[in-house]
Design a protein that fits this description.
By secondary structure, the protein is mainly beta. Helices cover 6% and strands 33% of the residues. The strands form eleven sheets. Strands 10, 39, 40, 41 and 42 form a five-stranded antiparallel sheet that branches. Strands 6-3-2-9 form a four-stranded mixed sheet, with no helix packed on it. It has a four-stranded antiparallel sheet with strand order 5-4-7-8, with no helix packed on it. β2 and β3 form a beta hairpin. The radius of gyration is 23 Å and the shape is globular.
């Protein structure tokens, strides 16, 4: 096991902490500027216009790339049909409400203002005429959308969506399709007969040979993903990375032909056209154990350029036997897909597989580590740590949960299975070292596996009366010692709990709201109850009460919700229309947050790598740059 490197005290954590204390030091700022500069997406302003009673609500991005250059010294002017609407530049927000005559008509743009100089106009606002963007789905009877991956497929600065569609009765092959936010379908890839799952079961060995999309098909969902979307070669346009096998058919009619039905590949697909650009066989270390499930994600292993991370997982000897996990990382230069390193997690190390990865810089050196629940693989393909006493769980969070501590923290739940009882229901830990900082306890006396199995947990700042984040689990029995809402510093602060699915930033304050099914709710710690803030009609959630995606796709730093219509004929993208005086650079250009989009699996909450909560006053400047040669979409002066 690799020795633990010294815990970070600069870049993210120190800048945030000193800012909260009002002593933003030059040393901390210098440390942040010395971090490697990541090549990130060249996004446009993301301007969106939503009709409201008596006017139009406008929202746009403050870009991380420009915030890195200018900090808070950026203002904006708002225009309709070329006429400026605001008397003085907008400085305290990235929202505006137009209530003037003709507000429901015309074309909106915004312009950045720096040192009194006005930049070029942004792209015209994306209008959400019905209060949402409607994205019709191509005909596919008996299919439902599982996941969505955002990516700028054509290099114009606006995200497109790649979606996976699964047959609800498990008789049809899995499909990948790409759509624009204005509702145009770009292409379809049919993943072929090896994407079909076997009869219902549970575990990573359930798919048919070389299953390329997911593993279990119980109730129409899959545990794994084996797909991601990101610009690996730095040309400003995102590629689609996926597992393929014999019979996979690409958008141009070409298909994979393999000598063995068990052969499996990593393919690079052109995001604009759906054509295959490169292919490599996956490692065959686990072939004797049967087909493998897994996850895809993206990590900046060298601190500057993105790499593909693929995880293979199988279970030895039985459907729910011991986990075996293999990581392979890959680089793509526009022509060739090459291996960076391979790492097989040692048997007997105590490391187990969770159902989603997180790729995040845990030690402040600018390079990302790969977190898989109770263990972490370092950026160089060595084992960093295994959390003492922890086993398999479904969900875990990594973020700056406590701004008073340097670095990042984690929160994870624990499951019990096949008579092997977990030692504790949850643990709160140091994400750089794996040290447990707080640990839940099980009830005393004889208990069953079901009593000790914790399936879900969440972390968010939902109680402004306590500093830092809170965390809680799906444990229903509030009399159990591990149940309730816990604060990172103050311990247990409530006996009852809110919904446990996802954290979302929606209403405009810096505290978190909660997303469950398709509705947004606000927790009131004084009453121990929640109030619904947003509940759209005509849309449904999928497996585990999740929608295909939520995140900061457009507009200001708040997050959007992508849901499927009840008839499975379209997707709808919803954005908040609440004004806010909080101004942050777009979450989509925060390194940890953006990489959270690249892994699906069991969907989990997505977090920034700086503290974002009630006490946040200023955030650190990210170390970012756009791809060399890419056209600028921020229209900066």
């Amino acid at each position: 096991m690799k020795p633990t490197r010294r815990r970070r005290t600069g870049a993210t954590a120190a800048v945030v902490l000193t800012a909260l204390l009002g002593t933003h030091t030059a040393d901390a700022a210098t440390t942040a500027q010395q971090a490697p500069r990541r090549v990130t997406e060249d996004l446009d302003r993301g301007l969106v216009a939503v009709p409201l009673d008596g006017g139009t609500f406008l929202s746009w991005r403050l870009l991380g790339t420009e915030y890195a250059r200018e900090g808070d010294g950026i203002a904006f002017n708002v225009y309709r049909n070329g006429r400026r609407l605001n008397r003085t530049p907008v400085t305290r927000s990235t929202t505006y409400r137009d209530v003037s005559a003709g507000a429901r008509r015309g074309t909106y743009t915004v312009r950045a203002v720096v040192d009194g100089r006005e930049g070029r106009p942004s792209r015209a606002a994306l209008r959400l005429a019905g209060g949402y963007a409607e994205i019709p789905l191509a005909a596919a009877d008996g299919y439902t959308v599982q996941h969505a991956w955002p990516g700028d497929l054509d290099g114009d600065g606006r995200y497109e969506l790649v979606v996976s569609r699964l047959s609800t009765d498990r008789t049809g092959t899995d499909l990948l399709e790409a759509y624009t936010l204005t509702g145009r379908r770009l292409w379809r890839v049919d993943l072929g007969p090896n994407s079909l799952a076997r009869a219902p079961g549970n575990g990573a060995n359930d798919p048919a040979p070389a299953a390329v999309s997911g593993s279990t098909a119980i109730g129409g969902y899959r545990n794994d993903d084996n797909v991601t979307v990101y610009d690996l070669d730095g040309d400003g346009r995102a590629e689609v990375l996926l597992h393929t096998a014999d019979g996979t058919a690409f958008a141009d009619g070409a298909s994979v032909e393999a000598a063995s039905p068990a052969a499996q590949f990593v393919s690079v697909v052109d995001g604009r056209t759906g054509r295959e650009r490169a292919r490599q066989p996956v490692p065959d270390d686990f072939t004797a154990d049967g087909p493998s499930g897994g996850h895809f994600g993206i990590a900046y292993l060298d601190g500057s350029r993105p790499s593909l991370v693929t995880k293979l997982v199988t279970r030895v000897g039985a459907k729910r036997g011991a986990f075996r996990v293999l990581f392979q990382t890959w680089d793509f230069d526009g022509t060739d897909l090459t291996r960076r390193w391979k790492y097989v997690v040692p048997a007997g190390s105590g490391a187990t597989s969770f159902h989603q990865l997180r790729t995040v810089d845990l030690d402040g050196d600018g390079r990302d580590e790969i977190a898989d629940g109770n263990y972490v693989v370092d950026d160089d393909g060595t084992l960093r740590y295994v959390v003492d006493g922890a086993g398999h769980g479904d969900r875990f969070a990594i973020a700056d949960l406590d701004p008073a501590r340097p670095g990042l923290e984690g929160f994870a739940v624990q499951q019990s299975e096949l008579g092997v009882l977990s030692r504790f229901p949850w643990y709160y830990y140091d994400a750089a070292t794996g040290e447990r900082l707080a640990t839940g306890t099980h009830p005393a006396g004889p208990v069953s596996e079901a009593d000790l199995d914790v399936g879900r947990g969440n972390a968010a700042d939902i109680d402004p009366g306590h500093p830092g984040y809170e965390y809680w689990t799906s444990t229903a029995d509030v009399t159990r010692p591990g149940a309730g809402v816990f604060n990172v510093r103050d311990g247990k602060v409530a006996a009852t709990t809110p919904s446990v699915n996802f954290r979302i930033w929606w209403d405009g304050d810096r505290a978190a709201e909660l997303l469950d099914f398709t509705h947004v709710e606000k927790w009131d710690p004084s009453t121990g109850t929640s109030t619904k803030l947003f509940a759209p009609s005509g849309v449904v959630s999928g497996a585990r009460n999740a929608t295909p995606f939520y995140g900061d796709l457009l507009g200001d730093w708040r997050e959007e919700i992508l849901a499927e219509t009840a008839d499975h004929g379209a997707l709808r993208l919803y954005t908040t229309t609440e004004p806010t005086s909080t101004r942050l650079y777009t979450l989509a250009q925060n390194p940890a947050y953006r990489l959270g989009w690249t892994v699906r699996g069991y969907l989990q909450s997505t977090y920034t790598d700086y503290y974002l909560g009630t006490e946040t006053r200023r955030v650190p400047r990210p170390a970012l740059t756009t791809p060399e040669g890419a056209g600028s979409h921020d229209h900066h002066p």
